[in-house]
Amino acid sequence: MVEYNKFGASAAARRVSDVTTEDLDLTDKEHCILCFNDMKYFALGKCNHKNVCHTCILRLRFIMKDMKCPICKTVSEEVLIAESESLNYEQFQKGEFKKKLLTDNEDAKIYYENAKVKAAGEYLRQLQCLVYKCNPSHQFSSQEALKSHLERDHQKTFCKICLKGRLVFIKEQRLYNINFLRAHIDHGDPGNEKQAEILPHPWCDFCEEYFFNDQQFYDHLSRQHLTCHLCPPNQYKNVYYSSYPSLENHFSKSHHLCPYENCKLKCYVAFRTSDELGAHVDIEHKASVRV
Ligand SMILES: [Zn+2]
Ligand SMILES: [Zn+2]
Ligand SMILES: [Zn+2]
Ligand SMILES: [Zn+2]
Ligand SMILES: [Zn+2]
Ligand SMILES: [Zn+2]
Ligand SMILES: [Zn+2]
């Protein structure tokens, strides 16, 4: 049994799920509503919202597999990345206009207004060295090749937990000096005006594994581990058991576990009081004997 209750506040970065239409300034077309960066190219879907930048929309599509507009949640199969502010979805869908557009090499449902915009869209997925001025024209063939270059030539590395759990392009992942990676894992990274804070990575004692953030950790706990339905929820909300045998052990120590073999096989047949167990035994296990 392990109690997990020392969770910090969630990261300062605005998550897509936190955005509600009421607190957004949709008249500001100069900044992306999700990342607050200057809007170079915007994404255009069915709903005609033009408040999300190409980086954010492509991150949603490629990394999170999310086709919804982050503002109104309208699903758009096709999306246009554009720079001309006067464009709208109806124009984009016109046969003649659409024919002239370029599509993404990986996803033919992503259209680009012109070659410059397409280059910006594809750049996000290219594997260049992340160290400033290090051979910017060279593209690595794989993430592994990029990693070995970073370790060998710069003594820098990615955090494996962030790579798995922080849903951004490789280009947006952070680099750590090999000697400071441990400090990042244990203490997280402070935020600044450019980067959101990263909290210390939560650790599952049962699986001996780190998770990127509280949300992913709680998902894991609720899917892989168990809680007791008999303990008062306000007091034991964050108490988890690795698997059923350890929860059963807890039932027999702290509650009233039905000792009959067929109930043990069913699992979870345990009661708060000995009276409740007595009533259960009378109905389930004694009745057939009496008949
Ligand atoms: Zn953005
Ligand atoms: Zn929308
Ligand atoms: Zn390099
Ligand atoms: Zn990390
Ligand atoms: Zn676990
Ligand atoms: Zn309990
Ligand atoms: Zn029973």
From TrEMBL:
This is RING-type domain-containing protein. Residues 32-73 form the RING-type domain. SUPFAM superfamilies: RING/U-box. SMART domains: ZnF_C2H2. It comes from Halteria grandinella. InterPro entries: ZNF598/HEL2, Znf_C2H2_type, Znf_RING, Znf_RING/FYVE/PHD. Keywords: Metal-binding, Zinc, Zinc-finger. PROSITE patterns: ZF_RING_2 (PS50089), ZINC_FINGER_C2H2_1 (PS00028). The keyword Iron-sulfur does not apply. One of its GO terms (molecular function) is zinc ion binding. GO terms for biological process: protein ubiquitination; rescue of stalled ribosome.
